[in-house]
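Supplementary Methods S3. Input chains for the assembly prediction are listed below.
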Amino acid sequence: MEPHVLEGTWEEIRAYESRLAGHRVRVTILDPDTAPTAQIEAQFTVLAARWRAETAWTSSVSQMVMHPAYQTIIGMGREVIPCLLRALEHQPDHWFWALRAITGEDPGRPEDRGNVAAMAQSWLQWGQQHGYHW
Amino acid sequence: MSDLLETIFPHLAATGYSITSPPSSSYNCIAWSVHDDTTWWWPDPFGLYYWPESISRLETLAAFIAAYSTRGYAPRADGDFEVGFEKVAIYVDAHGIPTHAACQVSSGHWTSKLGRQEDIEHHTLTGLTGTAYGRVAQFLKRPL
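Predicted structure tokens for the full assembly:
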């Protein structure tokens, strides 16, 4: 099994019990203030709406990702990944840089560069493979 | 959406335009100017977006001219309509960084994809000049 992160309540983690049996794991108790909460969802919703509105007219990836709302979303760290994946599933948009910055990974295929739908699909598959729920 | 459009681009209403597509996050102005409505082109340093192979991933006018050269475009002095050719105009901001590209259509007007918003046909390049896209800095052309 590849190293990966599972995150959720203890009851949610226990759902993976059979898959994790026999594997070495590390358990980190998250601060309740930083665990995925409705507050994270609400913050993401507000920031994403602001980012969409204020960068709607730009083609520049740099301008999109340097927008303060987008940078704030990146700063939210791994807690915001389910929100990003849900947003991609709902309507593919330019959350790839944020996911790349937060995770350090790029699951997209080279031949899919710039193909927004295919890039979104690659990230959704990555999310499933890494145990995210959104 | 046209009220907001005319706020972002204050010269647009006076110079004339029409909206010609629904919004889309799938392609941008650079792609649209080379008749590609499936890809987002940009030389981002992470290499997540499409940019022609072997062309520098830099946000410079020179890199954009080089990218267009892979599609047969060469620099040109003006945007006057010429039968048998199609032209592209590249806009830059106050720092000379490319922001937008428009492509000339057979009427002599121009067509632009506005970020993640709609395609428009605009009668003049001036219509999109201003705070958002800056000014036109370079014309390119290729044979039809």
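Chain B touches chain A through 32 residues (CB under 8 Å). The first helix of chain B runs from residue 2 to 8.
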